[in-house]
## 1
Amino acid sequence: MTELSRYLADCQARINQLLDQQLQSSEPRLARLYQAMHYSVTMGGKRIRPVLAYASCQACGGEPEHADFAAAAVELIHAYSLIHDDLPAMDNDDLRRGQPTCHRAFDEATAILAGDALQALAFDWLSNQGNWQAETRLQMTRLLARAAGPQGMAGGQAIDLAAVGNQLDLASLEYMHQHKTGALIGASVQLGALASEQASTEQLDALARYANCIGLAFQVQDDILDIESETSVLGKQQGADLARNKPTYPALLGMAGARSKAASLRDQALDSLRNFSTQADPLRQLADYIVQRQF
């Protein structure tokens, strides 16, 4: 295993264990709701957002346990967004991570409620962690709310839906994805840094630049894979964006241009970390991984 592979495996095992333990209920009347929540969160996934939280915490001198619930909260928000994105009223997808989507495995009403519950639970976890100072908890809660709401992910999704079948220029496409995808990735990095309670203003600013670049790079690579990969590798329907006539980077820039864009964003992300020590090496390796991944 490479150094990054080991780091990914360690972080994934840590967050998977925490999520599995926390997403349980002793109330029989809530059993089906919790089953849907647990199913959607633990059905797989790369856990990129929690890994980024752990890596940025380390970059600022923190330990993994400092970032546990920051990593978990951002993954709950991500899982809720996927449940709702897959619904018939949104993207109407049948597959997620190679498994039936939540509304297919359960039913549409349960899926909606599972997404709602995961979103609320994320803020409950962030606001109730006694190992962070009260000011840190408040800052983290506000940051995640902004990233998930109309000024972040939800707003980006609304722009995406409105853009189907329409031509967007590069600036408009980037604006959409900075909200839809980049906001939550940025929150992951910022939450991990805040969880360390050691991050300086300069470090937070540099990490914000890093997160903005890798957030866009992540989406560029997603767009490339939607064209080049296969359903069995992606774990979701290949070509779905193309079939829905969604605006993408390859459609706007061509495949070569999209790859060049991803590489440029990766290089900018790495440059933003130039004043960090080797403790930020996982962040550096993750920037490469994001533009090289095949699923």
Note: The mean pLDDT is 91.
## 2
Amino acid sequence: MPADSFTTEPVTKLFFRYLLPSIGGTMVTSIYILADTIIIGKGIGIDAMAALNIVLPLFNIFFGTGLLFGVGGAVLMSIAKGRGDVETGHRYFSTAVILNAITSLVYMIIFIMFMEQIARFLGATDTTLPYVMEYAPYVLWGLGFFSFSTFLQTFVRNDGAPKLSMIAVSFGGILNVILDIVFVFPLKMGMAGAAIASVIGTTTTFLILILHFFSKKNGLKFRLRGFSLSFARNIFKNGFTSFLLEVTAGLVMFVFNLQLLKYVGDVGISMYGVITNSAIVVTCLCNGINQASQPIISTNHGAGLHERIQTVKRLGVRTSLIICAVPAMLGLIIPNLFTYIFLNPNAEILALSESAVRIYFTGFFVTGANIFIIGYFQSTLKPQISLLLCLSRGCVLSLLFVYVLPLFFDVAGIWASIPLAEYLTLGMGIYFLKKTKRRINT
């Protein structure tokens, strides 16, 4: 889509044209993990699911790296195109590709060399370690595809091809589910089969996204000489919030695992696996809304069209609140539904399930609004505010509460830590939105 379409087409029509493909793409991204979780939980067992939950922070690093350079570069590329500077947009894309490739290679070397030590550090016990070591090596060899599939989704979408991005992710996700079922059940390949299915699925997504570069609509031009250290700093600075959104989620998951081991044991990690995978679905919904609005906001920011940006902001916040209310209400009304989706639960799991889901899911009411507000400040080149909100929500407050609240409320305090962090972050976000709006008006 040409940059002038972002600045001239009616905002509401433009927003909803991008919304469905964006949500479709991010939702299917969650299938990679959800399919593994459900099939491992049902087909292999509760200990295997606990092992998967220990590995999940690694996925946050892979996807977060793709977002670091993908969103960081794509926002700056869109702003450059909004200003009519196409060549600078190409240089941002080229620099981002090189950064993503180098970082992925470094990750792969480190993780493959020290996987068992890392697994122990993440909370693997003698019970769960064999499952972790059966699953992780295959995922690590596919690390580059996980990172680049996320990276390319962002750039292809910002280059005016949201449908191709959605098709790529959907096809890869469906293939992953089919292979998961085949490898784990009839072929009895266990954790290795689930991991191989995920790698094949994400590789397929990557290959379909590559097709964009052979289409007539392609506006992404890679130039090896386009790399620039100053551009690299700008990409890192602007994309760091997206990276933190993913990586702090992994950090919180890691700390949750340790706290639950302390207060409940391995069964607590299995229950947290149910909750965190449900949260992945909600987060993907929110990311879809954020990604639908991001190229519109960035391009109009580059063109100085503030009224159009305000319209997108209103649409994004309202859509986030409405969509996220659905899973939140389901968790409050029928909490055990989610436990039965992921596990064949025993009495011990069910004893934890009802209160855990009800407490944790109250935070979902405002999760979407928080993620949209963080993305809004990122898209309008206010990375300091975006970073502050991201750190408050995803790291500082969450980690503070997950350590402090259990001292007073036992395991219920662990489940309450995320909702409390969400609501406090929303208050901060509203304050900064009002403050920046006053500046624009004056």
Note: The mean pLDDT is 88.
## 3
Amino acid sequence: MRVFDRLKRGLRLSTAVSQNEWAERELSNSLEGLRKTWVETALFVLNSFQKPEATVLGISSAIEGEGKSTACLGLGVALAHEIDGRVLIVECEAGNSGISKLFGLDPEPGLIEFIEQPPVEMEQILRRTDLARVDVVTIGGSRQDGPPSTSSNQLTSSRIRRYLPTMITHFKDHYDFIMLDLPPLTRNAYALDLSREADRIFLSVKTDVTPLEQMSIAMHMVEEDKLAAVLLMTGFRRTLPSLLTGTTRRNSPVKIIEIPELPPVPDKEALLVGALMGNQYERFDTLDRTVQV
């Protein structure tokens, strides 16, 4: 059966997705490899951070464009399926509504409306997705005139910092995992404060995009006992793994999880969701790969 026919009904896929037989076979193999990686990562989380109450995981990065929203999606969907439980993904970065766009959700009302436009209630910003066990709280604020300025982003971040703990406490009774799509650590004055609301932090790093110095700074910013792993978005060139050792001063081992990139096709994230939620779903053993940095 064609891989596109196996995707879960309701995903918003572009008609531009090629259905050439050779391209489809290559994409199918890539999707399977990526699905396996996210399942392994989910199992790593489940084996490492078992808690009686909901676990809060934060996904951040050093700079923009390192794939942290995609990482939130991949890990969140894999966790929901692996535990047959419920996952909430919260967009915490003003001006970045990548998760809500993927799911085809109207950005409002969202976190900004809850903070700035009372009496918007918490239940009003909780959005159901096409995936039964994955919900989203969008960032909202799409009706602002023009793109948000740096100063307005920082003001919004300061307000999110004030209200985020209340929201997490409110939703913890209803979800097994809460995923925070955080701002980049070196680009937002409040990113570190927001990251403290998470039990564990994953840093998304992209080969040939992330400056090594910025990555080192971001790793040092995270509390040592909170840094769970570095999610290495490898793309087609793998320059960072050999450079990681010796570039930071941390004394504890940091797990490096390589996340392969899909071929350059439209709707890659939507295809990933379809693969993760497909009918043929297997468990995979975790890879015990650590790097001393």
Note: The chain has one domain: 3-280.
## 4
Amino acid sequence: MSQLAGARPGTDKLLLDTEQETRGLTTLRSETTSPTRAKWHDKLSRWVLVVDIAMIAVAVCLTYLAKFGLAHDLPLSGVPQVSYEIVIVIFAVTWLASLGANESRNPSILGAGIEEYRRVLSASMYAFGALAILSYLANASVSRLFFAMTLPVGLVLILIGRWAVRQRLVQARRRGEATSRTLILGDQLDVERVVRDLNKNPEAGFLPVAVSVTDASPDETDRVHGLRNLPYRGLIPHMAMFGVDTIVVAGGLSSEEVRRLSWQCEELQTNLLFTPRITDVAGPRMSLRQASGIELIHVDLPRYSGAKFWVKRSFDIVFSAIALLLLWPVLALIAIAIKLDDGGPVIFRQQRIGIGGEPFTIHKFRTMSVDAESKVAELIEKAGGKALLFKMENDPRITRIGGFLRKYSLDELLQFWTVLRGGMSVVGPRPQVAREVAEYTDDTHRRLLIRPGITGLWQVNGRSSLTQEESVRLDLRYVENWTLTGDISIIMKTVGVMLKPGDDAY
């Protein structure tokens, strides 16, 4: 075992000898196929299927009633002996089949991320495209209402149903249920990073139960974040002991070792995942290229202008205008409450640094005393002298009504006006003042490549529990990888965060 602490041996380091490996795989094939995992996987898929059936049934029935009321046996024009009752059944079955064919109910994508919603959307489009072609080829005069109403209504209902199932799943995973028992394998620093990330995001569904550090022996590193460090040589026989059904490779393996490990996982029906060596680069920017037997990952360069950003700005204008229109009664009540509290100004205006380093004026409901800004320098000095991402608990400047507004982020609602004026975006990095920007490193200045936002990745991934480094990393990740669908996902998560008490504010 001491060999592991020094120079790495050849590609057989991961394996038992041939006789032990064959005997071990034969014995472990049934032991490491976790019945618990299979049970919750199957149960989750069945629940999602039931939700899809119910929501599609409601959608087609609502469309039928909107078109015909309670009439029965209405023939379909152009197709003898076929009624609209048959049409709604065909619609429902085709839609369900498309959702299944697109693997939108695959447990690996349920519970976190936007891939599930993306697949639901694409499957729905495929289904209705096929139905439109079928009705044309069959010369069936299907009412346009069946396409114009069923698709949007059904899509909204399915997404709501999926979201409800996801909330139940996330709650279960936070209790340690419905998770994949995971072993993290790799160099020590990489293993520590992955364990830390998985523990901070239980909704992802991976429960770390053990590690295997490839650049140190268990005698040297007995535990990592409280998890047992299993010996790298002869790893597979230890998996049954911990009920491992997923291995996450965080690095530290040669291509030959990865191939052999994948063969073993295939034999044991164990999931094998890899953390990317290219960090903070989102999937849409990466693609696999093959040339003469060589596989390369191509990473698109980030883009900060062009049609893509015109789409983002158009979305900001429409979304902020609708938000202000719908929220004006709430805004009026907040303004009255602030005025009655201490008689001071209702709106807090402050100059922040925006896209390209250009200053702009931010608008918020005032939550601090009128002389709050004059006390900033003194408070920063007491907190250690660092202005970047400065925040303190129990800030004495916060007013009575201000504490309530901050708790539910209601003071941020007025920033939709700043978005409409062009200074901010709905989603983006946190807008900061000049004293914070003055402390930027060269890397941190990349936050200024796009407009700052009302909400962003850091608000829905830990908020005030994040370190300064983690907050900056999330902002930079967003800057380089943003998508419109990702923005919508962040907005939906922000609504949930606002309903949870907190003291986060800009």
Note: Residues 36-174 form one domain.
